Amino acid sequence: MDKFIKALKFLDSNPHIENIDESTPNIDVTIIKQLYDHQLIDVIDCSSKSGLSFLEPRINLNGYEWLQAQKNTNKLGDNEDIVDVKPNFMGVGLNVNALFRRIRNRNK
To answer: How many helices (H) and strands (E) does the chain have?
Structure first.
């Protein structure tokens, strides 16, 4: 998954790149093929029996939406508790997770 994110960020930060083939540094051409197959980028496929080659690779709207969804997933995962501990006695509860976070932040 990280390879897809890296490739999409590369294309987003390099909008004027003209072609990507097997000799292109910093990017794996097979990842570009997979992104194209999943319709996350727009390219002109110039591949042949000798190897993969793509002209005018551009991230498209689907790619931007997928990239944004990955960012949102990572943000939610950082703050999400794996185990939710809330002991309750006769309607009165204690959120142990919040207590632990407060103690931990006070010590920083």
So the answer is: 4, 5
Q: What is the CA radius of gyration of the chain?
A: 22
Q: Can you read off the two tokens belonging to residue 10?
A: 């590369």
CATH number of the structural domain 2-70: 1.10.10
Q: For residue 21, which phi and psi values (nearest 5 degrees)? A: -140, -170
Distance CA 105, CA 24 (A): 46
Q: Which helix (H) or strand (E) holds 101?
A: helix 96-106
* Reported confidence tier of residue 24, pLDDT bands at 50, 70, 90: confident
Q: Domain residues of the chain, as ranges?
A: 2-70
pTM, entire model: 0.64
Residue 76 has pLDDT above 80, yes or no: no
Burial of 50 (0-12, 13-18, 19+ CB in 10 A): exposed
Residues 35-53 pLDDT 10s: 999 999 999 999 888 899 9
